[in-house]
Design brief:
single chain; mainly alpha; 30 helices; 55% helix; Lines homolog 1; Protein_Lines; LINES_N; Lines_C
Length: 761
């Protein structure tokens, strides 16, 4: 065969042009056994697709040595390896073009004929199975992709699973661990599942027909591969065969989890990760290579977030699957059990930071190595979501608190142990601040975590209200102390988040516009709580403004009958919110005439004026990275489209934006920001700085007669919400907001009225 003819065929198929000659002519180009000896065919004596009498187990799989020997003896006029790679690529492209609606119908029919001849006449899948075992990794990879394409094609065209591939898969899975070469089988199955999921015409029937014959075998394989002794040297390197098998299996588990959304009744192999998650947790705590542990931890995070893969259906639809409540409860119970047994603190997080293209820092790099923040957040998210699900399925307040306090205690200790390096200049005095410190660098995770703790708070608060109509003052103080000691007081959490983003309403607007966070759902739930719990919000704002040692310190939250009780992990609320730090608001004595509010990247300070009629603003160089736009609309790992399911959000679903719409929105926001600054300049004295601009620094003065010093946090937080309301209204008026924000605006408007009524008093 001349390579030029094969190359010409490849160019024609790639362009989608008709093939003028007979289908048999083109099939001969794709026949992988062309020029192979008769002995080669005997070695690859696999069952044909028409041989329905032979059982799956009768299939004869050639060894790697046999394949290598026959590849070396191929009688091509061109380099055999290059010819083989071109044939494998052409098979995959031919399948894609045969299913493309952009190709002319007659041309697609011709492509179909060639592929059907290839399957029935040449037994090409038998040869592909042989090549899978090749030592040549590129050939093996391309054979896997081509085989997956052909199995998908046959499943769609004939509504039947390819017998040769099924025989190979059953044999490989059943013979493990006696025969350890199983990664190729797992690659191919994973690729087929992904192809079938993308095919809207196959949907449920395709996944069911594909996985049903493998269901019991896959569950047995799960038990076999995860019950190994992972402390052996086999798993110490990510390049070993054992590690390769495990990594390939993780990818398969992710695909099985994603395919669960396609079936009304999930198969056992799609549930096994939930029902037997203890195997995974044991592996995470073993001496397996860190890369393998990390992949399992990220998979666990996807389980609890209902995000099997980035392009899967939204979380609310995934949650509607039968058995999911049972499965999630089983997973949550096991996760919380091991957390309460110090499992978290026994996981050795990597001490090396991640560097582009390598795991080593460049010479001269002064980056301080610390714990892997990605894994830290993933483990934290798994615990928080497990707590949320367990609380949502608990019937009494006592049942929730019993396990919640213990798990949160271990989680707070875990955070403190692994955040030491990054917090050397920022002592954490209040447990509610931990959430923003841990998750601030990943916006979608940040609001998922905040929403989880908010839902837990709302559930316990509702159970408290059901149990007692009127709570005593002592019970209320005990409840407040419990929320602060366990780091989930919703007002505290929200205020710490606002503080970290310098009370920038435009950052909150970014979150609302983006479809990649659940901030909309979180904000609506929180504003409803704020509307009903206003007095608590005001009290906590006042505590933020209280300096350390003041008679109104945060310790006043602590009830008298618990004066001697220490906080979780030994950190007292005595010093909460009053440690001097760059992000903390420092109240001024009422005798001063003016307060200066400075908003910079990473700097939230109330500076004292020491000279009459003069202003000072210190240019703090510790810039807050989180003030940079936190939402990347192009890509975000581990993100999802949220559907809130609240009656007030029926018409308020966050939708992805086109580039043109994003540009218009940002122009409108910039215009709004300029207008806001001009208004401020006409009312207050601006702070002149060389080279400063509105995006990096905005300073203005307010008479202390208008703002009570103890209400600085209250003023800045309510002002942020007020500016957010105005920005949303402005965008809505220009039809630039991506969804109907009417319900959200009503809530914000109500909060604004309550705030103004309080200020007028």
């Amino acid at each position: 065969m001349k390579i030029s003819l094969l190359q010409q065929m490849y160019k024609d198929v790639l362009a989608g042009t008709p093939l003028p000659k007979e289908s048999y002519y083109y099939t001969s180009f794709l026949n992988l056994c062309v020029g192979w000896s008769q002995e080669r065919d005997e070695l690859c004596d696999l069952p044909s697709s028409d041989d329905s009498i032979r059982s799956h187990q009768d299939a004869v799989i050639p060894t790697t040595d046999d394949v290598s020997h026959n590849l070396a003896n191929m009688n091509f006029s061109f380099c055999p390896r290059e010819m083989m790679l071109l044939q494998l690529t052409l098979i995959e492209v031919l399948v894609a073009k045969a299913q493309s609606q952009e190709i002319e119908f007659r041309t697609r029919q011709k492509y179909h004929e060639i592929l059907l001849l290839l399957l029935k006449e040449t037994q090409v899948e038998s040869k592909l199975v042989c090549i899978l075992s090749s030592h040549d990794q590129l050939l093996s990879h391309m054979a896997s992709k081509s085989l997956a394409s052909l199995v998908h094609f046959q499943l769609k065209e004939e509504n039947a699973v390819n017998v040769i591939w099924l025989s190979f898969s059953l044999k490989s899975l059943l013979e493990f661990p006696m025969h350890t070469q199983v990664a190729e089988c797992l690659w191919t199955l994973t690729a087929i599942i992904k192809d079938v999921m993308k095919d809207k015409m196959l949907s449920e029937s395709g996944i069911l027909k594909l996985l049903a014959p493998l269901d019991a075998v896959l569950e047995g394989f799960y038990n076999s591969i995860l019950q190994h002794h992972f402390d052996s040297q086999l798993y110490s390197s990510p390049y070993s065969e054992a590690a390769n098998n495990l990594i390939s299996f993780i990818d398969l588990l992710e695909s099985l989890l994603a395919s669960r959304t396609q079936l009304e009744l999930p198969l056992r192999c799609q549930r096994v990760l939930f029902l037997k998650v203890s195997y995974v947790l044991n592996l995470i705590n073993s001496s397996t290579h860190y890369f393998i542990k990390k992949k399992f931890i990220m998979l666990l995070k996807k389980c609890v977030l209902y995000k099997p893969q980035e392009d899967s259906v939204s979380g609310s639809q995934f949650l509607q699957n039968p058995y999911l409540k049972e499965d999630m409860l089983a997973l949550s119970n096991v996760v919380l059990q091991v957390v309460n047994l110090t499992w978290l603190n026994e996981i050795p997080l990597s001490e090396k930071a991640s560097y582009f293209g390598s795991s080593e820092a460049l010479s001269g790099d002064n980056t301080q190595n610390g714990s892997d923040q990605v894994v830290l957040r993933a483990l934290s998210m798994a615990v928080l979501k497990a707590l949320e699900f367990k609380c949502q399925n608990s019937a009494t307040e006592a049942e929730i608190k019993e396990g919640f306090e213990s798990s949160m205690s271990h989680l707070l200790t875990f955070w403190r142990n692994h955040m030491k390096c990054s917090l050397h200049s920022h002592p954490v005095a209040h447990h509610c601040e931990w959430l923003s410190l841990v998750f601030i660098e990943q916006d979608d995770d940040m609001w998922e975590a905040a929403k989880a703790l908010l839902l837990i708070y709302l559930k316990i608060d509702r159970l408290r209200g059901d149990a007692a109509d009127n709570s005593s003052r002592e019970e209320e103080e005990s409840w407040d102390f419990h929320t602060h000691a366990n780091g989930y007081n919703p007002h505290c959490v929200f205020l710490f988040f606002l503080e970290k983003i310098a009370f920038d309403s435009i950052v909150l607007l970014d979150f609302l516009i983006s479809s990649e966070t659940c901030f909309l759902e979180y904000l609506v739930r929180y504003l409803k709580l704020l509307r009903e719990d206003w007095h608590q919000f005001v009290n906590i704002c006042n505590h933020f403004d209280t300096k350390c040692g003041s008679s109104q310190a945060m310790s006043s939250i602590k009830p008298e009958h618990q004066e001697k009780q220490s906080c979780v992990a030994g950190v007292s609320l005595q010093n909460a919110c009053c440690e001097p730090e760059p992000q903390t608001l420092i109240p001024l004595a009422s005798s001063h005439n003016y307060l200066v509010f400075t908003t910079e990247q990473g700097d939230n300070e109330v500076a004292e004026s020491n000279q009459s009629n003069s202003l000072l603003c210190n240019d703090n160089t510790s810039l807050l990275g989180s003030l940079q736009r936190l939402v990347n609309y192009d890509s975000s790992e581990d993100s999802e489209l949220e559907s809130v399911g609240e009656e007030c959000l029926v018409n308020t679903k966050q939708m992805p934006l086109h580039k043109e719409c994003e540009t218009m929105i940002r122009e409108a926001v910039c215009s709004y920001t300029d207008d806001k600054q001009n208004k401020l300049e006409s009312e207050v004295l601006p702070l002149k700085q060389k080279g400063s601009n509105t995006s990096s620094s905005l300073a203005y003065i307010v008479s202390s007669d208008n703002i009570i010093p103890q209400r600085i946090m209250f003023y800045k937080s309510t002002k942020c919400l007020e500016e957010l309301q105005k920005a949303i209204s402005r965008l809505q008026g220009r039809n630039l907001f991506p969804y109907n924000p009417s319900a959200l605006l009503r809530l914000l408007s109500h909060i604004e009225k309550i705030s103004k009524n309080m200020n007028s008093q």
